């Protein structure tokens, strides 16, 4: 049994061969291991998945959870190991030709990341840059601790912060999928015991 070494870099092919054993993402050749999610994190994802699934039911777009590997085959002649593989908490994909070999090759239409202490920096910086470069149309960052949603929308190849939703302001409404609308408090229902 072969495992990924966090101190080595990998090609996309090598990573996909070894990652079957572990839960990890690939950032330009470097494996990044995923910590188990908290109960609050999982509850937010479940609540969002229900909202998204209900809104898109009967349409030609599909909602996927965090087990879907999303592959961005970025190429940089200098490095050679530039591919990126991410595990978004939620992906909405309308172009099913991107779905093959149990993965998504290319940009989902909408991506959601729920922040956690171990991934917050990557979600805000690295992954946002990857999503922007790949052409993700809408990116949501959910902060369960502080109970808000940041909505970024792709304008002229740049993911720009369009709105921040809290329980105190208007309901959330997706820019790309107007049928996806809900009150933020509906997704922040679970509070963990310390």
UniProtKB/TrEMBL annotation:
Domain Putative restriction endonuclease intervals: 13-182
CDD domains found in the cross-reference section: DUF820-like (cd06260)
InterPro entries: Nuclease_put_TT1808, Restrct_endonuc-II-like, Uma2
Highest taxon listed in the record's lineage: Bacteria
Designated name of the protein: Putative restriction endonuclease domain-containing protein
